[in-house]
Each structure stands twice: as structure tokens, then as C-alpha cells.
Amino acid sequence: MTQVLEVRDLRTHFFTQDGLVAAVDGLSFELAAGEIIGLVGESGCGKSTAALSFMRLIPKQGKIVSGQIILDGQDIVSLSEAEMRQLRGPKVAMIFQDALAALDPTMKVGHQLMEPLQTHMGMSPRAARKRAIELLDRVGIPDPDTRLDEYSYQFSGGMRQRVMIAIALSCNPKLLLADEPTTALDVTIQRQILDLILELRDETGAGVILITHDVGVVAEACDRVIVMYAGNAVEMGPTEEVFLRPGHPYTQGLLGSTLNVGRDREHALPAIPGMPPDLIDLPRGCRFEPRCPARVAMCSQETPVLKSIGRQHEVACWRAWEKAPVLAWDSDRR
Amino acid sequence: MATEVSLAATWRTAKPRSLWGDAARTFARNRAGMFGLVIAILLFLAAIFAPLLAPYDHLEQNWSRLREPPSRDHIMGTDELGRDVYSRLLMGARTAILVAIIITFTATIIGLILGSLGAYLGGWVDQALVWVMDALMNFPSIWLAAFVSVSTRPSIARWAQAIYIATGWESMRNPVILDYLLVFGCLGLVGWPGVARLVRSQVLSIREREFIEAQRAIGAPTWWITSRHLMPNVLGSVIVSMSSSFGNAMLAESSLSFLGVGIQPPGASWGNMIASSLNSWRSDPHLILMPGLVLSVAVLAYNFIGDALNDALNPRERDR
Fold this sequence. Notes:
The structure holds two protein chains of two kinds. By secondary structure, chain A is an alpha/beta fold. Chain A is built from eleven helices and twelve strands. In chain B, helix 2 crosses helix 12 (286-313), helix 10 runs parallel beside helix 11 and helix 11 (270-276) runs antiparallel to helix 12. The interface between A and B is large, with 40 and 31 residues.
């Protein structure tokens, strides 16, 4: 399989008044065509900044300071803004969390859908309109011919997200970034949208990066999962492998803090104590060390890097590499 | 099953609607807005056709019929110089509308240009702009306009004289035209910061909205984002501000004229009509009542229009 995205040692830093914020600090991974990777972690751990880096759309104060982002065989880090704009749409596109905010309230949905078709694919207005109807039909919007001439506020939440997906897929991107595409929707609609993304992935063969903090969504949809903590990947591997044998205490904590209706009625929902570290003032050694129940002296001295602990399963944790499995969180319940 | 059928039917019968068509429909449902629109149109027609509608020349004095109450000959009576109040009101409408149009457009154009420049360029340009706007807006606007009008009048008059000598343009000697120029200048000066501030903040906030980001994420060119997404979203509030500043401009012109620093007699303005009848308001209340009433209704009408436009041009607040 061909790689649509190869990220090597990506560092995206923000230069704020308070100091340097290392939002993404040494992220590396690969994504194959047709593959779905789940990017999970708490708020502020660098998931969204990573995704915006892949589009080169990081806010003004931010900068990709080092690393490579090889999108469909081309390193995009050094491209000019004009060259990059040509790639947004045909090579990489994004589905946003809040479709209502991401659609222009004063422009008909159809025109927003036709826009990329006309600017990138050079379609005539008539051809673009025809294609827009097909696209809306494809994402499951009934009566697309009429709906094309309506405004985003006239759509329901789920329908809006479908429109967003149609816009993102209009130029057949090789890489689709979905930033919490289901978070703003209710559960039944979440399911439909997720299914739609999976279907379209099968059809177009696009690689998908699904950013979420919903572990359930990852379990359901993703081939592989990357767990991020404080700007770094702390665990990476096939979804099943990571879920069954989580190596990093943070991953264990994340999985442990989800609700299991059958089992958890008697127990309080376990949570990871503390807050993610301030990215300006990072602790020495492992970044999770201050919150980690399994920490040892070594953890505050040296930073662990990703290392294999199983088939394609990598973890950045000193304790996980020990022979005995680390069962840090509430071991009697496992 | 039945609901499915009826849903499909409503979808099919729903006609495509444009943003402006939609706005017009919402506007038409707003009673106060429609009332304002009717008044505004009547006022415009009155101003345009004033010379045809006026039964007398607004400057013609009839010394045998001073300060008469409304009668068959003079439906709104006569003033202290025996001039027909109705005719003067019509000509006053001309002044008010002309001033309002010119002031609103100057203020809006200057505001649009400076406001968007400040938002775009940022840095010291933006900083300087904000300082100037704050400085101008810190003065009571009428006070500032009156001050500028009074203090610049002699030099403007000298320039006009010089232009007349150099070019021979008769109009440069006409004191009423000088009044107009002064009023335009002062009110434009105090009017633009409000618009610039609005435009600047709108551009700044809309630029950060997610749909602009989404447009960039799909690779839309900058000119496209600016013209198709940024401007239409800014324009709505600019149009609203224009319609309400229209009424305010009328009020400001009348205030200046009332204070004696705007349109001077014998030029007709609602403001100077009220001012010149102030001494006799006990005996002849109609001389103040007529221009006062017309002015109030006009300003109210434009505020209604502004309000209705605000509802109509904001798609989120619009009901389906």
C-alpha cells in the first residue's frame, strides 16, 4: 500500500508572549491509503495543532520549526503558501467539528460546494452544479436539487455535517482530516456520520485521520490509534492491540475512564488525577511522570521514546518495557 | 408513511430563495419596518418633487399675512416673514435628505476603507486608526461638528472667495452652498469613526470565524474568500448602520441648523425653522410643531428601517 502521509519528527511550536509552547514536539507516523488512524488524547495535547500542521493552516504565532510532512510523496513543509493552496482540496481536506460555524451563513450551501469544484477542478458552473447535486446525494441528503439552494441554517445538525463531508470530499482528497466530526452531534447521528465516513473511505481510498477524545469512536472506526500526550505520541499501534494490551499508563487511564454500563454501576468512574502539564514549562523526563501512578526514579530523569513492545505496537514508557506488564490503575478490576 | 410523503412534498414545493430575496421577505413581515419604509419613500418623493409640490416659493415673503394659523391658502400656516410653512417644509426635506445621503455615504465609504485597512494591516496603522477614532468619538459629536463648523467657516469662506476669483464659478459665492459644504464636512468628520470601528471589528471577528478557516482548508484563493465570504458578512451590519445613521444625519443637520451653525436662513432646514420660531411658540405653536413633527417621524422611520434590516439581514435570527 502507498503512504499518503508520512510525518517525521514534526515540531510545531507557538511563540507566545508567555514563552515557547511546544504544541507538537517530535511526532512521527505514517498513514497508508485507505487507512484510518485515530488521534486521541485530552484537550490541549496537540491533536488539532498536528492536524492543522498537515494542512499548513496553523495560526500566525505558530510555526513548524522542524520535521517533514510528506503528503502523497511531496514534502509540504517548505512549500510556498500559493503552492500549498493548490494542495488543499485535491490532496488534503478537513471536516470540522462544528459544521454550523464552518459553513458561511450568507452563502447558499450549493455555492459553497461548487466553489472548490470551480477553483480546483476548473469546472463550469453548470458542471459544478451537477457534480454538487451528485455529492449531496452521495452523502445522503434527500432532494439535493432543492437543498442546494438553501442556507446552512436551514439544515439540521447531522445534515450540515453531511454537507461538510461533501465539501471536503468534492476534490477527491488523498488525505482526509476529521477533527472531532461527531462530537457536536447526538448519538444516533454520530453513528450515521461515522458510517458515512467509513463508506466514503472505502470508495475513495483516502487515508483518514480521525481526531477524537471519544475512545468508543476509535474502537469502532480506526485501524490504528495514536495516543498523544503533551505534544508527543506516547503509544501507537493497531487499535485492537492497543485496546487489549495498553502499554502506557496514560492509555490505560484513558481506557479505564470510559463507562462500562454492565460493570461499573457500583464504582465511581475512575479518572486520571491532575492536569496535563503546562506546555511552556515542561517537566524533565517523561511528561506524564507527575500524574503517573507507576513512576519510578528514572521517569523524571530521562525522556522515553517510542519503542516496540509487540507487533507494530510502540510505547514510550520506561515501565511498559519491563518484562512484567504494568497494571498501574486499579489492578484488581482488570 | 404519510409523513414521508408530506415531507417530500414540502421539499419539492420549497422554492430556491436568494439571500436578498429572503431578507426582503423577512423585512416585509416587519410592520414597523414597512411603516418606516413607506415614510422614507414619501419623504424621498417629497424631496425630489419639492418645487412641483410646493404651492409657493419657499423664499417668497408676504408681509400682509404674518404668522397665520393653517388656512385654505396656507395649509400649514405662514411664518414670521409670511412665508408658506408647507413649502418651506418641503424644501427642508430636500436639505435633510441631501445632507443625510451625502453624509451617510461619505461616512460609510471612509469608514469602510479605513476600518478594513486597519483590520488588514494591523500594527501601527491599526493602532493609529484606533487612537484617532477614539479621540473623535470621545467628543460629543454635535459639539465637535458645531465647533469645527464655526471655526473653519471664515477660512472656508476665504477659499471659496479665492476659487470664485480664480474660476468665476457663481456657486462659490452662494452662502447656502457654503453652508452645505460645511455641514457635509463636519458631519462626515464626526460620522466616519463609528462606521470604521464597526467595519474594523466585523472584519477582525469574521476573519477568525471557522467558515473562513474552512474556506482556506479547501484551498479557496484569498480574493475569493474576501469578496465572496468576508465582504457579504460584513456588509449586512454596514447596511444596518447606514440606515440608522441616515436618520441620525438628518437629526444632526437639523441640530446644527437649529444652533445656527448649519444651514443659515433664508435656506430652508427643519432645524432653522424651529429656531426662528422659538420666540413665538406660545402664540403660534404650529410653527414649531410642523417641522418638529416631521423631523421626529423621519428619524423614527429610519430607525425602524434599521431595526427591520438588522433582523432581515441576519440569517441566523431569521425564522424560516
